[in-house]
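Shipment paperwork, digital attachment
Item: protein structure file
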Amino acid sequence: MPVGWIVEPECRDRLLERFPPRYAQTIAHHVTRHVEGSATSPLPPRIAHARVVGRADDGAGCEALVVAIDGSTTRTDGGTWHITWSLAEGRAARESNTVIAERGWEPVDGGPVKLEPAAW
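Attachment content:
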């Protein structure tokens, strides 16, 4: 059970307007803290400051928005905080990690984003 933060609906709507998804399956749902939580895992702390600062797209069906949490885009595992934004058929959300690591990301100013601690 993944644990992290859900993008609050009004922020999601604003971001979808600003960054129309490029691929058929819109995700635009969450920022993962870790994927191996359980029903008894504690939720992550509330985030005081989160901002969309970048965008990654491999041009072949995987698009993600990069998020700075409290000023940093770097996760505790060395990866990059992000929201999987959209996917083409046959692609998986976990591929966003590889796309960002291998291809990098372009800076954008997506503004602040409100994130709610959650497990899903």
